[in-house]
Design goal:
Layout lengths: L1 H13 L23 H17 L3 E2 L4 E2 L9 H9 L5 H4 L3 H17 L16 H14 L6 H20 L26 H17 L5 H13 L4 H4 L5 E2 L2 E2 L15 E2 L2 E2 L1 H4 L1 H16 L5 H4 L4 H9 L20 H14 L3 H19 L15 H18 L8 H8 L1 E4 L6 E5 L3 E6 L6 E6 L25 E7 L1 H4 L3 E8 L2 E7 L5 E5 L8 E3 L14 E6 L2 E6 L7 E20 L7 E8 L11 E4 L20 E2 L11 E19 L6 E7 L6 E6 L4 E3 L3 E4 L3 E6 L5 E4 L2 E3 L8 E7 L5 H7 L8 E4 L5 E5 L5 E8 L5 E3 L2 E5 L3 E8 L3 E5 L3 E5 L10 E4 L4 E5 L5 E5 L4 E3 L5 E3 L16 E3 L30 E19 L7 E6 L9 E3 L4 E17 L8 E8 L4
Antiparallel strand pairs: 1-2, 3-4, 5-6, 7-8, 8-9, 9-10, 11-12, 12-13, 13-14, 14-30, 15-29, 16-17, 16-26, 18-22, 18-23, 19-21, 19-22, 20-22, 23-24, 25-28, 26-27, 27-30, 28-29, 31-32, 32-37, 33-36, 34-38, 35-36, 35-39, 38-41, 39-40, 40-43, 41-42, 44-45, 45-48, 45-49, 46-47, 46-48
């Protein structure tokens, strides 16, 4: 998290200044953005085209849009289109006046049928009617001049009565919402965060607060309580006395986040729910802005909001959407991802969010055109997300209209800012690194285990969501032990991660490097290991999705075409045979949905479908998805396995042709639940079966140990005797766990993969695997015992890279002494480079001891040598004499506080500057405590703390004390610090949180650094 501390101050400087409220008269009259806004223009075009879908929700008999799945929420998008912009009836598929009339009629109907005005059709229920009430009230306000007096009164009543009802619940549950609950004021974070639930309570109050003529104080108090606690985290909140709407953050009571600022929902890390803080805030803010009322402070000063946002940046894709390694059915749900970015950009003035929003907006129209065309929630199974996507794009458009537009940073700057490595902990089950060139993560959550990698942050390259295998067949493995380490620039001089997961059958691990390269190592864990799945769609306008993928290996190239239309079509031709029964037997199902077929056709080469209308059977079927639907000739019906059988690999579908006939081909038209592998069998009697075809068939098979994936990524495999195979969208890098192997994954096509494969991997002791990819030494002990031995690294002898510890030059490189605990891994950066003065090879037998990132000692054969810091100063070597680089840092730093998270975070108390400056290892920065200021450093885990050293700038040093805590709630008695510019307090305790409290007054010295030195483990 060290890079976060350096960059967050910059972030705070880039937000807020542009967050100036634009006046609005509340009349609902149209107003165009003051300046050109291509993002807003995109939203308008998307809404126009989406109208073709939304009009399918109109019930001509009833005279209004449907109630089912909140289809009537399309009125908000309609209201935006008919009151703003250059309406295009040809794109929308309906005349503007017709759309206006239908929208007004729908508002009239559902205003009268809402439970809050005496109706019985919908409304009042907090989960989830009030979310759609929020959209509905906004639509009505935009079309206020078109509404009759009775409808206006009903809309006013809905806003007021909902606020009154929600306030009357106090912190209790809504009896109308079943078992949905915010868990009172305490919240919850394990398994299912209550962030979203508290947000629902807050957003049910916002329309009343924004539109009611008089606002009771009880409404404001309830809105503030739920809003402030949405991202509640006690250790952080208790350390923050900042006032938000007049109430101290330290008064918060909820625990809705893991202590690493991850939101867990449905038992997984789900960035969609992590974004709920800003999704809710956007829905609320637009009411106040449209009504011309000031925003409540909590909307723009959300406790823990910036730390939470940092975790989203740490998983950001190049499409402006967070990557979803653990989310099963909401990946690429673009409609829902627009609104949190629009809020952060337009309301908070966040230029990084503005870049992410612009990148996402650039994909929207290509995404919308992909089948099923016009829709914006096509990759999600919940129908209510479709009208909601329309509403949220409409709100995003309005936020662009109502607020000044910040200038986005460049895409490269976004990922430089977002770069960092974080271990989110064993509970969330995520160790992740965002670098400038890629994202990668080790997922150890039960049922979702994988080593995920997205080169170039491209979330349309490798499939990483849900149970999709990524190097590992995740659903078949249970993690017994987890080793995880995150390296950060502040503490270690570079960002990286190293992990090892232990299973009953062996161990596997991954190293991620600052270059975007990943290294996967395994002892041989399970069948199916070493596989990755590749997206291949025809979605013109999205890079890489041009309808095919090209794979290149030593033997040549193969082009794998994308399926046309909806679903995949497999045509399998085989030797002519006589059969009455033909069946598909599954081998590898879709990782989430199993198997589902629109049609199963059997042919003899003559063009006729011999299976049409014949009797069909299956191992199981879902309700309304019986076997007969796959042979009925209707492209809109299908067979699907039962929900219970979705994980089952050997599900089958069969057709009885009525009599034995010649057959030589089958065509299978799959739904999204397409079998990844299966076989086709024939039989004369339905008892004895013969295999006549298998899928997939190899598109490419290579023994060259390297593979280029569409010029976007490259793999090099070491240690596996098996060939690399490409079968459709599946790449198999090794097909068997026998001896284990190592894979290096490289970003882009700028590497000589053949040369890397030919050079081989370092030679290691038994149980150890290593890689020297990109000059970093990645080490894994996958054995059962601690290893002390030598790793031989092949490298250039004219510029010898040396790593922490002791190594000796050899005829081909270096021999590096290593000690590795069982089930552990580490990454060593090249700290220095050794060269020979005048050029030529460094002699064999030179011993180089790297003591830290600042000091090195060279001994051995007499030679004129130079030692250079990586990318820095070069100094001559005196054999046996320690070389010290004054400009270097002694990485890894023996400072437990370096680069760690600090509290308070935004919002900061009055007079206080960012306390992260005290732990950023930068003598040029300092922390201003503010009156009586206090900083808390989160060490990340309980550790033995020896002493705390505080260094001040010039000036009068105030009195200060040090206290420690294990849980961030209760602190041990404070120890006094001296008044010198460099003061020390001896602690001698086990603690996770270290607090430095001051009696600071204006004009006194500022804190340059807080250093926490480790104590003895005993």
């Amino acid at each position: 998290m060290g890079e976060f501390l350096l960059n967050r101050r910059r972030l705070l400087g880039l937000i807020g200044a542009s967050a100036v409220i634009t006046a609005w008269d509340g009349s609902g009259a149209g107003a165009a953005p003051a300046a050109a806004d291509p993002v807003a223009d995109t939203y308008y075009r998307v809404l126009l085209r989406h109208t073709r879908w939304s009009e399918t929700q109109f019930d001509a008999t009833a005279g209004h849009y449907r109630r089912t799945d909140f289809g009537f929420a399309v009125v908000l998008g309609n209201a935006v289109l008919v009151t703003r912009g250059a309406y295009d009836a040809g794109t929308a598929g309906v005349e503007r006046d017709v759309l206006r009339a239908r929208t007004v009629a729908t508002i009239r109907h559902f205003a009268a049928s809402n439970a809050l005005v005496g109706g019985t059709e919908w409304g009042k229920t907090l989960f989830w009617d009030t979310t759609f009430q929020s959209y509905f009230v906004l639509a009505a306000r935009l079309l206020w001049d078109d509404l009759d007096a009775a409808t206006r009164e009903a809309v006013d009543t809905i806003a007021r009565a909902q606020a009154e009802y929600t306030t009357s619940l106090g912190s209790g549950d809504d009896p109308r919402s079943g078992d949905w609950t915010p868990n009172g004021p305490a919240g919850g974070y394990r398994g299912d965060t209550k962030l979203e639930e508290m947000g629902v309570y807050a957003q049910s109050l916002a329309p009343g607060l924004a539109w009611a003529a008089t606002v009771p104080e009880a409404w404001r108090a309830a809105f503030g309580r739920w809003s402030r606690n949405m991202a509640g985290l006690p250790a952080a909140d208790l350390a923050n006395p900042a006032l938000v709407d007049g109430v101290a953050v330290s008064a918060n009571t909820a625990t809705n986040l893991h202590d690493t600022y991850v939101v867990e929902n449905h038992g997984s890390f789900g960035p969609h729910y992590q974004e709920e803080l800003w999704r809710t805030s956007a829905r609320n803010a637009v009411h106040f802005l449209l009504a011309g009322r000031p925003l409540p402070e909590v909307i723009t000063a959300q406790p823990n909001g910036e730390r939470l946002w940092r975790t989203i940046l740490g998983t950001m894709s190049d499409a402006g959407e967070p990557l979803m390694p653990m989310v099963r059915d909401r990946e690429h749900l673009y409609g829902r991802d627009v609104i949190p970015l629009a809020f952060r950009a337009q309301v908070l003035g966040d230029r990084y969010a503005a870049r992410a929003e612009a990148d996402l907006a650039a994909r929207l129209e290509a995404y919308q055109a992909y089948p099923p065309a016009d829709r914006m929630a096509k990759f999600s199974g919940e129908p209510k997300y479709e009208p909601e996507a329309r509403a949220e794009i409409a709100i995003s458009y309005l936020l662009h209209e109502l607020r000044p537009r910040p200038v986005p940073v460049g895409s490269a700057e976004l990922f430089r800012f977002a770069a960092g490595a974080t271990d989110f902990g064993a509970g969330p089950g995520l160790l992740a690194q965002q670098s400038e060139r890629a994202w990668a993560g080790t997922v150890s959550k039960a049922g979702l285990v994988k080593f995920a990698w997205q080169p170039s942050h491209d979330d349309w390259l490798f499939v990483i969501s849900g149970t999709t295998p990524m190097f590992l067949p995740s659903t078949a493995l249970a993690v017994r032990e987890r080793f995880a380490r995150a390296y950060t620039g502040v503490r270690d001089g570079f960002d990286a991660t190293a992990s090892v997961l232990t299973f009953d059958s062996g161990r596997a691990g991954m190293a991620t490097l600052p270059t975007g390269t990943v290294v996967y190592a395994t002892s041989g864990v399970a069948e199916g290991e070493g596989r990755v799945s590749v997206h291949n769609l025809a979605m013109p306008g999205v890079p890489g999705l041009d309808g095919d993928r090209v794979f290149t290996a030593a033997e040549g190239s193969a082009t794998v075409r994308a399926a046309e239309g909806v679903g995949r079509r497999d045509d399998l031709v085989f030797a002519r045979t006589s059969a009455r029964h033909v069946r598909m037997v599954g081998v590898v199902p879709h990782p989430v949905y199993g198997y589902s077929l629109y049609s199963f056709e059997v042919g003899d080469g003559g063009g006729a479908d011999l299976a049409r209308g014949r009797a069909a059977s299956a191992s199981s079927s879902d309700t309304g998805r019986e076997p007969g639907f796959a042979v009925d000739g209707d492209a809109g019906t299908r067979w699907a396995v039962s929900r219970a059988d979705r994980p089952r690999s050997d599900s089958w579908f069969a057709v009885d042709l009525g009599a034995a006939v010649p057959v030589d081909r089958v065509r299978l038209h799959w739904e999204a639940a397409a079998g990844q592998a299966y076989r086709v069998e024939t039989s004369a009697d339905g008892v004895v079966w013969d295999v006549v075809a298998t899928y997939p068939r190899d598109d490419l098979r290579s023994t060259g140990k390297w593979l280029d994936v569409d010029g976007r990524a490259g793999f090099v495999v070491h240690g596996s005797p098996a060939p690399i195979a490409v079968r459709g969208g599946t790449v198999t890098l090794s097909d068997g766990p026998a001896a284990g192997f190592l894979v290096e994954g490289y970003v882009g096509a700028d590497r000589d993969l053949a040369a890397i494969a030919g050079a081989g991997a370092p030679v290691c002791p038994d149980g150890v695997r290593a890689s020297a990819a990109d000059g970093y030494l990645s080490l894994f002990n996958l054995g059962a015992r601690r290893v002390t031995g030598v790793v031989s690294v092949r490298q250039s002898r004219t510029a010898v890279k040396v790593y922490q510890g002791v190594q000796r030059t050899t005829a081909v490189g270096t021999d590096h002494d290593v000690v590795l605990e069982a089930g552990s891994a580490r990454v060593e950066a090249p700290r220095f480079t050794v060269r020979r003065i005048g050029g030529g090879a460094v002699p064999a037998g030179v011993t180089v001891a790297v003591l830290d990132g600042q000091r090195v000692r060279v001994t051995g054969p007499a030679a004129m040598l130079l030692v250079a810091q990586t990318g820095g100063v070069e100094l001559p070597v005196v054999p046996g004499v320690e070389v010290v680089f004054p400009s270097g840092r002694p990485y890894p730093l023996a400072d437990l506080a370096a680069g760690r998270v600090t509290f308070p975070s935004a919002p900061l108390p009055a007079g206080m500057s960012d306390p992260g400056a005290a732990v950023d290892d930068d003598p040029r920065t300092s922390w201003t405590p503010g009156p009586g200021g206090r900083v808390v450093v989160d060490l990340g885990a309980v550790a033995a703390v020896g002493e705390v050293v505080v260094t001040w700038t010039a000036g009068a040093v105030p009195a200060a004390t040090v206290a420690t805590s294990v849980d961030g709630r209760a602190y041990d008695p404070a120890a006094a610090l001296g008044r010198g510019r460099r003061a020390t307090a001896v602690v001698g305790a086990s603690a996770r949180y270290v607090a430095v409290s001051t009696s600071w007054k204006r004009g006194q010295a500022r804190v340059v650094s807080v250093v926490v030195r480790p104590g003895s483990a005993g």
